[in-house]
Amino acid sequence: MRAPVAGSMTAAGEDGPILRTTPPSVYLDQWVWVRLAQAALGKPRESFDTQVLTAVQEASAAGVAFPLSSTHYFETSQITDPRQRMDVARVMASVSLCRTLRSHAVLLRHQLLHAMHVSFARPAFRPTAPEPLGVGVAWAFQGERSSMDLFDASGRVDSSSIPGLRPWLRRVNQLVEFQVLAGPADSEVEELRRLGYRPETVVASDRSRLAWEEFFTDLLKGERMSREELRVRVQARELVHEYMDVFGKLLAEYRVDLWRAVGFDPRRPRSGRPGMTAFADRVPSLRITVDLKVQLFRNPSKPWKASAIHDIDALSIAVPYCHVVVPDSEMGDLLSRSAAAQRNDTRILRRLRDLPDALADLTASAAADRSSAAGAGLLEPGEVFCTDMETLRNTAPHLPKDWHTAPGP
Fold first, then answer.
1. pLDDT band per the 50, 70, 90 thresholds, residue 401
2. Tens of pLDDT along 328-384?
3. In terms of Cα–Cα distance, which of 91, 106, 109, 111 is closest to 50?
């Protein structure tokens, strides 16, 4: 089976929006990055892992994107061993070039708008899709690009004013992105806390989300219902809990009366269900989330884990936007049952050993367009991704003492 190429149509039928990243892209679950890091250290878990690492590196050099998501940043931060965290982050940075999938908020707003356009004819014109692939942690969490620039007392410094300054600033940004991905060293935590670093807030949010799924599991105990009924309930629950803030604003902005739009008649209970479920199924990420959660809720004996929530977050974006996805075994099984691969025209690999073959067509496609190999400005052809301060010091041009780096506007 050949992997689809850039520009494929996603979602069911002709109603689906075009979501694919422009360069061919491959999403690797966190466990794959860990395996690649072990192979890079000369300690492959399986004999074929070294071959996989080589294929991934060559594909990346040819311009295939291996984007990170916000989930990768969180899961990498949960690695307790600083050395292991650094090793994994180094491989992730050098292969992905810190390319990232855009924040959920930006991508899902467009998906909702497109579903409204198809379902309700508002907006009247097909909404323009945002660029899904960018660079850096700010792109993954905020949906906007942020980079370090050089400043003096009068403001931003022109990077062409000093020979060697522009490539050095690229290396500065590479190192900053790598350090954010790798997280702080133990010796840095105390100082960072004085500056407002509070990792426990993320953990608390994680626990709250887990409790939300466990609460629904408890509600389902002892209640018999069809799969279709469970799916409707999960769909409504997901739409209200995760999407209603932005959805409500879009309905107000385009003056859509939701009950009228979905054909709800107060004299006929459930009359609005067909229209509402059809709308929700036109939101690709929402549909993937619902299908995966329905399958998990159908097995009440299996407890929910935070890792499953993170996996669903990541896959709901990765499957519609990437050409190839390598999930863990459980999520791969659930995705195959939901027909998400066929619906989104995405190749989902169940075995890591199959990745080199899947990369062949994508590499050829990327190599034909050399502009995709530049890493969206963070890496120029022939450069090696900077992951250590020593390299930065050794390549720094001579700068006046009052010049300093800071995030640009």
1. low
2. 999 999 999 999 999 999 999 999 999 999 999 899 888 776 554 444 557 777 778
3. 91
Identify the CA nearest to 96 among candidates 78, 123, 73.
Answer: 73
Q: β-strands 133-135, 99-101: how paired?
A: antiparallel
> 3-state class of 26 per DSSP?
strand
* Residues 111, 105 contacting (CB under 8 angstroms): no
Helix or strand holding residue 100 (H, E): strand 99-101
Band of residue 395 on the pLDDT scale cut at 50, 70, 90? confident
- Spatial distance between the Cα atoms of 331 and 150, rounded to a whole number of angstroms: 44
Helix axes 244-253, 104-120, angle to 10 degrees: 50
Residue 7 has which token pair? Answer: 């520009």
Angstrom distance (rounded) from CA 21 to CA 24: 7
E strand or H helix that includes residue 404: strand 404-407
Which residue in the block uniquely carries the two structure tokens 């993170």? 310
CA distance 92 to 387: 11
Alpha helices by DSSP H, listed for 262-325, are 273-281, 284-297, 306-321
CA–CA gap between residue 50 and residue 255 (Å, rounded) = 56
DSSP 162: S
134 φ, ψ (degrees, to nearest 5): -140, -155
Greater confidence, 248 or 10?
248
Per-residue DSSP letter, 11: S
Each residue of 242-260: b (16+ CB within 10 Å) or e?
A: bbeeebeebbeeeebebee
C-alpha to C-alpha distance for 17 and 9, rounded to whole angstroms: 7
**Mapping DSSP to helix (H, G, I), strand (E, B) and coil, where does residue 330 land?**
helix
| Mode of pairing for the β-strands spanning 155-156 and 347-348 | unpaired
Alpha-carbon dihedral 368, 373, 376, 378, rounded to 10 degrees: -170
Closest by alpha carbon to 140, among 313, 348, 366, 340?
Answer: 313
pLDDT, tens only, 224-248: 889 999 999 999 999 999 999 999 9
Hey, what are 358's tokens? 């899947």
